[in-house]
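Milestone 3.1: sequence recovery, worked example.
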């Protein structure tokens, strides 16, 4: 391990330690806050969408057999598996009953959307692990096994995404959430952030190793991912308008929407969600003079930031007006413990992904020396697939 790699690992471990400290302090907080669902809930939603969205993009190769995506599919499965773990941790911490988390399974209630969400996440994680093993051992197992794993993971992915949107969309007491458009918005957001995660992590993986991105990967990044992101950003804007315009005319939701478009959250809505996370990426993606991979990576990073703040705005603004807790506007800013916990979750993902890059055969021409670990080079050069 080179010195820079060691420093990177030590930095991430320190950040994870700070996250654990923040989580311990956060769990011991008073439960009388006016905003009961703070930073960790939008963080949970973001990581859940990132995991399922990455899995959705993986299915293009694993299920639909589009071969040009094959060179990065193992990285994509590994990334999806990593991203779902902080999502579960965040929601357990925010509920404040971490020791009772397994009651979702031992005392399962079929009428509870949250119970079904927990069960779906468990199915998703188990089959992601099996899918990763099958893709790494693909040369020594029957061909139907990876396809079956991919189909099951795709079904679980779509169910998780839809159920997540429906979970919040069915909360009639929160007018900003109670919308039939929310499940569709969550699916579009998931696919957007999934494409962006592919771009960011694959590009960074090669850059960190001092290698250039293979031409085949650069090709479908430009030919496929770039126009997809352009289309998805436009669709996202349409869905935002389709949700907010009718709500402006609604007596129940009107005041909540005003918090976003002309109130306390207008800076994060217009400045980050719309301009930084939408308009600027569109300019970068549609400008042919800026079509290189570095501009694509920059646009992907901005979209990811915009998606996170879209969920932050949705969850926090949706709780910011009484009468459930108090009358009038309820201000909120994340505590230092919430921020440390969220940063710890990000550091966890980066650390585990880094360890996977070092230990697992994630390149298309690498095979395991034993089980799924210990990289061994292979003569098969799948990067050459067009």
């Amino acid at each position: 391990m080179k010195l820079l790699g060691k420093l990177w690992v030590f930095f991430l471990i320190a950040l994870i330690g700070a996250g654990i400290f923040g989580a311990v302090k956060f769990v011991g907080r008073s439960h009388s806050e006016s905003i009961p669902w703070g930073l960790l809930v939008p963080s949970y939603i973001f990581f859940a969408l990132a995991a399922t969205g990455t899995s959705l993009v993986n299915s293009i190769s694993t299920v639909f057999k589009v071969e040009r995506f094959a060179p990065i599919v193992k990285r994509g499965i590994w990334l999806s598996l990593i991203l779902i773990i902080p999502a579960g941790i965040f929601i357990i911490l925010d509920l404040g009953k971490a020791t009772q988390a397994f009651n979702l399974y031992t005392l399962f209630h079929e009428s509870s959307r949250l119970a079904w969400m927990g069960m779906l996440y468990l199915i998703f994680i188990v089959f992601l692990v099996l899918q990763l093993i099958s893709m790494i051992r693909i040369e020594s197992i029957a061909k139907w096994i990876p396809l079956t794993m991919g189909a099951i993971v795709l079904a679980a992915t779509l169910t998780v995404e839809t159920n997540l949107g429906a979970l919040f969309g069915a909360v009639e007491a929160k007018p900003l959430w109670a919308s039939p458009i929310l499940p569709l918005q969550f699916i579009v957001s998931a696919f957007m952030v999934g494409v962006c995660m592919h771009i960011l992590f694959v590009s960074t993986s090669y850059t960190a190793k001092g290698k250039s991105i293979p031409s085949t990967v650069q090709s479908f990044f430009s030919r496929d991912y770039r126009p997809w992101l352009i289309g998805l950003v436009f669709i996202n804007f349409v869905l935002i308008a389709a949700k907010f315009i009718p709500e402006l005319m609604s007596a129940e939701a009107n005041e909540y929407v005003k918090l976003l478009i002309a109130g306390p959250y207008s800076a994060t809505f217009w400045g980050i969600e719309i301009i930084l996370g939408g308009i600027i990426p569109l300019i970068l993606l549609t400008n042919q003079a800026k079509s290189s991979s570095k501009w694509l990576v920059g646009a992907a990073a901005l979209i990811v930031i915009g998606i996170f703040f879209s969920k932050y705005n949705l969850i926090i603004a949706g709780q910011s007006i009484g009468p459930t807790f108090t009358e009038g506007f309820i201000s909120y800013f994340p505590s230092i413990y919430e921020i440390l916990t969220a940063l710890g979750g990000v550091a966890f993902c980066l650390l585990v992904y880094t360890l996977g890059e070092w230990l697992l055969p994630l390149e298309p021409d690498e095979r395991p020396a034993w089980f799924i670990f210990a990289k061994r080079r292979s003569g098969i050069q799948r990067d050459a697939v067009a």
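The beta strands are 366-370, 373-377. The domain at 17-27+35-362 is CATH 1.20.1630.10 (Formate dehydrogenase/DMSO reductase fold).
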